[in-house]
Amino acid sequence: MQRQVIAIAGVELELFESGEGPPILFLHNGGGFFPEQSFLRLLSAQHRLIAPSHPGFGRSTLPDWIDSCDDIAYVHLALMDRLGLAQADIVGCSIGGWIAAELATKSPERVRRLVLVCPEGVKVGPADRLDIPDIYAMPDEELERISYHDAAQMRLDTSRLSDDELAIRVRNRETTALLVWEPYMHNPKLRHRLHRVTAPTLFVRGESDGLVSADYVAAYARLLPNARVETIGEAGHSPHLEQPDAFARAVLQFLEANR
Amino acid sequence: MRAWHFSENAYPYLPPADEYESIRVSLPNRVYDPEQGAALYDRFLDEWLIAEDEGMDIMLNEHHQTATCVDPAAPLVLAALARLSKKARLLILGNPIANRRQPVRVAEEMAMVDVLSRGRLEAGFVRGVPYEVLPANSNPVRMNEREWEALDLIIKAWTSHDGPFSHEGRFFHYRAVNIWPRCYQQPHPPIWISTTSPSGAARVGARGFVQATFLTGFDGTRAIYDAYRRGWREAGRGGDVPAHRLAYAAMVYTAPNEADARAGAEKLLWYITSNKVPPHFSNPPGYVPVAGNVAMLRGAEHPLSAFRKSASVEGAIEAGIMFAGTPDQVHRQMKRLYDHVGGFGHLLIMGQAGFLEHDETVLGIRTFARELYPRLREEFPDTAITGQLSLRGA
Predict the structure, then answer these.
(1) Which residues are CB-contacts of B191 (< 8 A; sequence separation ≥ 6)?
(2) Of the candidates A67, A167, A182, which has its C-beta nearest B290's C-beta?
(3) How many angstroms separate the CA of residue B9 from the nearest CA in chain A?
(4) What pTM did the predictor assign?
(5) A238: distance to nearest CA of chain B, Å?
(6) Which residue(s) pair with B173 in the sheet?
(7) In the predicted model, what is the mean pLDDT of residues B232-242?
(8) Per-residue model confidence as pLDDT tens digits over B287-327
(9) Is the alpha carbon torsion for B217, B223, B224, B229 positive or negative?
(10) B140 close contact with A: CB closer than 8 A
């Protein structure tokens, strides 16, 4: 993928791009964006794939006024303006899905079709129970176990990373905490704004996702006027990484329907 | 040299450590017996007052959701001490202002204690250890920024006397700040800040606050004090940093004979050995800077857990985090650290821990106060200029 850095809304934003065709804005999860991941090739085969690193992720800077997914949605709207994208399909994973949902409530007309992959962002359950398990109050091994269908396959060997690559991952984790710490994994306002979303919306959930439950996704989808849920087998919280083929098929089928 | 008796108000009557995940944050409070807890509060207050009778000053701190320190609202204990004590300086070290949502409330609490004690408050502020962020639900990212904004706001609240002012900052927002009472000491009580990193110390030095550091040993403490002195000088405060600007906290147990000293020192180690905390509580994202976390992923030790290697009396003394023995031995150990780090003016004595009983605690306080403290005061005056030994070595 081609990489560039553009100045936007006070952020030096790292931007990756590849492919030609109808545009997809891809919004990465809290792990960060890594252009070598195989699902990207599948998504960009017949599309122009545009993928920013969110402020505070990858090599994008983090101005001190940014501390929420809501803030980042404004940066990405400004990015769409800059790129001259009157409208795009948006695919967001996990907190990238949350950012995409925020964006779609602000400027519904800018989103043609919306794909939210295991997104957080709303509070649907009772006050005395977290909707999303507390990822900051469990051992790493437990977090890995509930994040993946097959954690052993997905484990990252950090000894093979350079210090720079490792620093990016550590910083991604830090920025994620900044965004999701409180209120935990949601913006209390978002659920009351989702009625504004006009784009047909697909929720994708990994069947083994221990972070975002089936009930949560179903309740989330009910908050949007036109949404449905698709479940991918043998995948956890990152179906795009664990089942890239099935993931890309589901996404592309949805995007191409009635084009 | 001033010596401060410091007790964490620990609750040591716990199940075996292998029966719980963590002594902090998640240990259910059903293991806390309020009857025993009340007796402990009485006892620890008595010990502070005995230290006062012996000519020492008083220090307390605050932690949350932990058996290691059952003082989740230190200003409350401070208020009790303000009335119970008569002459000791009262050091709270400190108010965890990166985690307190209302800095103006903190300013009020401190001003009130200052008046209650007729000007004996030493107001300390801390960022808070990493295991505090979950109990406070406090974002571990940007804690330093919150701490400094809160501190400046507190100082302004203390020193503004002409009616309300407003504060619309990055983290805190007030339209009408006008605290009652105002402080007893003018312009405000002495300010202390604790840190375990040189980068933090430079900033504290630039402001001229008292710099305290806990269990940082020989080289760690020297790096922190050097950074403080650098910050002090670069801010134009002059070339000489007096000893009363620097404080060091160590486990200290002094007894008339080696056997009793050894027994007391063993019990003090509970400070270190009891602190069972899993990594997800001790290293939340953002608490340690990115470079520090990268180093840890490459095998370096967590800066706050380095001292856990020193879980023996010999190891702890060797590391400079414990002074224990007869008055002569404690003097020697302390002087060794004093010389290595370039001097300091306050010894914060972690003088009670775990199962160190009342009589043993009092023996430690009295032996120190009567047999050693007069010597320390004479040999290490508050007005000594720090850093000269360390600079010569550098």
Answers:
(1) B123, B124, B125, B151, B155, B209, B210
(2) A167
(3) 25
(4) 0.96
(5) 21
(6) B168
(7) 95
(8) 999 999 999 999 887 665 656 667 899 999 999 999 999 99
(9) positive
(10) yes
